[in-house]
Automatic annotation (TrEMBL):
Residues 4-107 form the PilZ domain. It comes from Undibacterium pigrum. GO terms for molecular function: cyclic-di-GMP binding. This is PilZ domain-containing protein. SUPFAM superfamilies: PilZ domain-like. Gene3D superfamilies: predicted glycosyltransferase like domains (2.40.10.220). Pfam families: PilZ (PF07238). It comes from the Bacteria.
Length: 114
């Protein structure tokens, strides 16, 4: 199938934490990534067009056991309830250049394997 998106997605299974406006930390599972954002699954609804502080755990490229804890912000683009889980599309920002390059390396690695 031809990928028509501006930034192709790759499937991952990463963990993330999202800080809600009331101060609670919600755990989420990231299911795909692109150079610009992520799709995550969470039990909590997230409001479109709202920005949230996030912490993403990204495995190392060569040693997947080496987990990089990446602090960033995420702007919710869409949130869709499917069963008991929200599928939330998030555009990432305020990520360090080094961590953005790590995401890019994961995309390249996965695209190479496909």
């Amino acid at each position: 199938m031809l990928e028509l998106r501006r930034s192709p997605r790759v499937t991952v299974t990463w963990r993330a934490g999202v800080k809600l406006p009331d101060g609670r930390l919600v755990l989420a599972k990231i299911v795909n990534i692109s150079a610009e954002g992520v799709l995550l699954h969470t039990a909590e609804n997230m409001i479109p067009q709202r920005s949230y502080h996030m912490l993403i755990e990204i495995p190392g490229i060569f040693q997947e056991a080496d987990i990089h804890k990446v602090s960033c912000k995420g702007m919710v683009r869409h949130a869709i309830l499917s069963g008991e889980v929200y599928h939330v599309g998030i555009q990432l920002s305020e990520m360090s250049q080094l961590h953005a390059e790590l995401v890019g390396a994961w995309i390249s690695k996965t695209a190479h394997l496909a």
